[in-house]
């Protein structure tokens, strides 16, 4: 039996229990008296349009968080490893690979017939220490080629899409002077995509970044796509991270992202969607300040909802998700995947960034693994425009 059908039974029991405990803010579809209603989960609702995924943490991958795992396997048909496939964990020392958690991650996806994402092959952050010290181009090339080839080959035919290069651009659309850029030269992205394509010709190969709503940065990314395509280098799509908040970027800006990426002939994946509801320190101190916001730690003004999200903000969050998903539905022909950056609010990275120790509410499931109003709003959307 297809695992997704088995999961309909699990989700019936799961939401019955949850609703008996008391879920005030979700509509009658959650009352598990009717399998067809309960089986309308996020991924099944949008199944004909695009994949719906979640980034999962190590606890979920290793089976230490069964409630999270249940949500992942019933609500989503795609997964991304939040941290477990990053270079510092996979290859902490030269040619010493550790695939323990990564293997379990891939197995979880295979067991549940999911679209499996690999994140991220080449990224200046969460890189192994030894890579930071390399001062020689040939050595850098050899390590990057070895990493890409070893990791992609291991999961050939299993990992469906790779974030091949992550966050390579500055905000002005120029290339970031990362260790890769400095040692391998400005064509390093093309080279890395070629190595990835050679290791698994069937995998989708994505370039992934944040702040893609900013025109200059987006222009740099679009130039890259066009350059790779004109060189005959495979690139399958642009990943738009989508770490957004209640007001920014505007719907118009989001729509422009979709239109512009589609105009260079590749689909968009929203790879890391979450909506912060907390005040932004950038608004308080201006854009030029360094990103160390420790002065705000413990400041109640910057952490206004430590004991729960007021209904008025819960409603704003639901409306924001509704508006965003309406756009996604409108442009379904240009979008291949929408992935949330996490499963439930408790584990979101946004509780600790850009200010540590806050209580944020960016996802569709709350701290008690219950669906929020935004969840229901998204599920209630028509999938035809
Ligand atoms: O969610 C990840 C968090 O647990 C890590 O501490 C952090 C380290 O940089 O990375 C987070 O994930 C990032 C992703 O890999 C790339 N895009 C930005 C994400 C949020 O920082």
Q: What sequence of helices (H) and strands (E) makes up the elements?
A: HHHEHHEHHEHHEHHEHEEHEHHEH
Number of helices: 16
Characterize the biggest β-sheet. Answer: 8 strands, parallel, barrel
Q: What is the fold-level CATH name, i.e. the topology of the largest domain? A: TIM Barrel
CATH homology-level superfamily of the largest domain:
Glycosidases
Quantity of strands, as a count: 9
Share of residues in helices: 40-55%
End-to-end C-alpha gap: 33 Å
Q: How much strand content do the residues show?
A: 5-15%
Structural class: alpha/beta
Q: What does the model show?
A:
With 385 residues, this protein is an alpha/beta fold. It folds into 2 domains: 1-30; 32-379, TIM Barrel (Alpha-Beta Barrel). The chain has 16 helices and 9 strands. An 8-stranded parallel beta barrel has the order 1-2-3-4-5-6-8-9, surrounded by 5 helices. The structure holds ligand 9MR. The site of ligand 9MR has 8 residues, from loops.
């Amino acid at each position: 039996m297809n695992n997704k059908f088995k999961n309909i039974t699990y989700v019936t029991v799961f939401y019955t229990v949850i609703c008996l405990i008391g879920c005030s803010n979700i509509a009658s579809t959650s009352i598990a008296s009717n399998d067809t209603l309960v089986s309308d989960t996020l991924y099944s609702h949008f199944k004909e349009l695009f994949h719906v995924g979640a980034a999962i943490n190590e606890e979920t991958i290793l089976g230490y968080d069964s409630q999270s795992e249940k949500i992942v396997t019933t609500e989503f048909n795609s997964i991304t490893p939040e941290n477990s496939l990053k270079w510092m964990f996979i290859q902490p020392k030269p040619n010493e690979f550790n695939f323990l958690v990564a293997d379990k991650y891939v197995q979880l996806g295979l067991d549940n017939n999911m679209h499996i994402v690999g994140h991220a092959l080449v990224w200046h952050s969460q890189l192994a220490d030894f890579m930071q010290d390399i001062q020689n181009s040939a050595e850098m090339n050899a390590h990057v080629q070895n990493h890409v080839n070893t990791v992609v080959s291991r999961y050939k035919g299993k990992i469906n899409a790779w974030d091949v290069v992550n966050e390579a651009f500055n905000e002005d659309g120029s290339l970031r002077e990362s260790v890769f850029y400095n040692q391998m030269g400005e064509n390093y992205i093309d080279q890395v995509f070629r190595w990835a394509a050679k290791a698994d010709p069937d995998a989708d190969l994505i370039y992934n970044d944040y702040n893609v709503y900013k025109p200059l940065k987006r222009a740099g990314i679009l130039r890259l796509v066009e350059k790779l395509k004109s060189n005959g280098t495979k690139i399958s799509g642009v990943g738009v991270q989508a770490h957004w908040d209640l007001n920014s970027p505007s719907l118009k800006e989001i729509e422009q992202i979709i239109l512009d990426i589609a105009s260079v002939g590749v689909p968009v994946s929203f790879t890391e969607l979450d909506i912060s509801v907390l005040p932004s320190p950038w608004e308080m101190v201006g854009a030029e300040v360094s990103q160390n916001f420790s002065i705000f730690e413990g400041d109640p003004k910057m952490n206004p909802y430590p004991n729960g999200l007021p209904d008025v903000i819960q409603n704003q969050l639901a409306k924001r998700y509704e508006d965003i998903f309406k756009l996604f539905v409108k442009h379904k022909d240009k979008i291949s995947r929408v992935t949330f950056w996490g499963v439930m609010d408790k584990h979101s990275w946004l509780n600790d960034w850009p200010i540590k120790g806050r209580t944020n509410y960016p996802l569709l499931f709350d701290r008690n693994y219950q669906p929020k109003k935004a969840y229901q709003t998204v599920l209630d959307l028509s999938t035809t425009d």
